Amino acid sequence: MKHIIIKEGEPQEFIDWKKKDKMYVKGKPNWDRLPSSIKNILREKISREQGFICCYCERRITSNDFHLEHLKPKDGSKYPLLQLDYDNLLCSCQLELEKGEPRHCGNGKGSWYDEAKFVSPLQADCENRFKYTYDGQIFPSDSNDDAAITTIARLRLDIDKLNKFRENAIEPFLNLDSSLSQDELNSFVHGYLAEKSEFGGKFNEFYTTIKYLFGN
After folding, report:
1. Which residues contact 113 (CB under 8 A, 6 or more apart)?
2. Every domain of the chain and the residues it spans
3. Residue-wise pLDDT tens digits, 27-66
4. Rounded to two decimals, what is the model's pTM?
5. Burial profile 77-110: b = 16 or more Cβ within 10 angstroms, e = fewer
């Protein structure tokens, strides 16, 4: 889980709509009233903030395979006043599930949320709460970290599908030519972990996995 360092100011179109919407002004925000055109603006801006990787698993998110995710659920009975809170919005993978496809990330979390038992990508220490193996598995860095344990289970970050994706990302680093110098190896890793501006606004997939295993 990569730390989302920058949550920029909310789009002006979103601000303007909230000022006009009667239900929002009266203190009754309603996500379902938000026009799709504004949601599309939010999707574009928030996905850029994340470097176009899923807020939870770090898979690449593409235009047809991610959705706006409420960190604290938009379920009206739980956090009704945060439905239209920009700082509560993230982008998670899996817009539409294919038949038999396992749910994970935002779709796995659903309407569950417990602040004491959940590691959020907005937390500064989130990257240090998990560790990875060379075959793509994910574990809590501290075996007594209940929040990290629960987060893995709720988001289903340890399912075979995601383990395999991480393993595929790791494989090129394990197969590097042994003739490469340490500086050349470091340069290769640095290139993968480069700031998103160097990749046209994109982070590479499974950033923290590669950083954990090869970034020292």
Report:
1. 71, 72, 73, 78, 79
2. 12-214
3. 678 898 899 999 999 999 999 999 999 999 999 998 788 9
4. 0.90
5. eebeebbbebebbbbbbbbeeeeeeeebbbbbbe
